[in-house]
Design a protein that fits this description.
With about 260 residues, the chain is α+β, with helices and mostly antiparallel strands. The protein has five helices and eleven strands. The two termini are about 35 Å apart.
């Protein structure tokens, strides 16, 4: 069975982005909503410790196509993402999927984090979708100086509402790992999400001018023939599940050691 997402996975992601059932509002102002998925009450289901969060932003001055380009353009991200430590694409998996690395700066005394993710995308006449999830790559194992975080599912759905406006939805369920209490993670994500969304929106406003001066015709996410990444067989990757990494929350000794060197 292929690790690559199929039509059913894209449909499921779209459904989660657009669903209103089982989501509670945590923030709603200035065209921005932050929602958290309600915990399931079914006792047979283990309730995930980390919230699934959804942010919906109404954008009135940037096209859906431009916002989509911003999310893909790794060179541009270096100019606007203040949290980024390092980021690079590793390999192509198909015309609309790749595997990449991203690390980011966390506020002291928390250790910086990194992820290795499989990202896939789809463009239709009335929407743009990008989503990712964590994978294991033999050449990029967890590093001692960083905590390997997990993206269970993270992505974007962008729907045009006019020639220069769109609805921009961000959905994420991610576990930063380490010894951070889950309630801290959940509270922080609700506060940080609107800030990140505003940052992405501003990046969208500035992008057309930047792109005019930086390889304006190069967009390998739209034109696969421009992609110069090496090809990789998707079967060499496996899904990185949160519980298969050392779970420091379950061990006070490990958590204590992790705290001493800045968890």
């Amino acid at each position: 069975m292929s690790i690559l997402p199929d039509e059913a996975d894209f449909a499921d992601f779209r459904k989660q982005c657009l669903s209103t059932d089982n989501w509670s509002s945590k923030y709603d102002k200035n065209g921005m909503q932050v929602l958290v998925e309600a915990s399931p009450t079914n006792k047979g289901n283990p309730v995930p410790k980390v919230h699934k969060i959804k942010c919906k932003m109404t954008i009135n001055d940037v096209s859906a196509a431009t916002m989509y380009d911003v999310l893909h353009d790794g060179q541009y991200r270096k100019t606007w993402d203040p949290a980024m430590l390092d980021s690079f694409d590793i390999a192509r998996l198909s015309a609309n999927a790749d595997v990449g690395y991203y690390s980011w700066i966390c506020p002291q005394p928390i250790k910086n984090r990194d992820v290795v993710t499989l990202r896939s995308w789809q463009v239709t006449e009335d929407e743009y979708i990008i989503f990712n999830f964590s994978v294991k790559h033999l050449k990029y194992p967890p590093r001692k100086d960083l905590v390997r975080a997990i993206s269970i599912l993270t992505g974007y759905l962008i729907k045009p509402t006019g020639p220069n406006s769109c609805t921009f939805i961000y959905l994420s369920q991610a576990d930063p790992k380490g010894s951070l209490p889950k309630w801290v993670v959940n509270q922080a994500s609700q506060v940080l999400a609107p800030r990140v969304m505003k940052c992405v929106h501003k990046a969208g406003q500035m992008y057309p001018e930047w792109k005019r001066q930086n390889s304006p015709d190069r967009k390998p996410w739209l034109y696969p023939e421009q992609n110069i990444l090496p090809m990789m067989d998707p079967s060499e990757l496996s899904i990185q599940r949160a519980d298969s990494l050392e779970n420091m929350d379950e061990s006070s000794k490990v958590a204590a050691a992790d705290n001493q060197d800045g968890s």
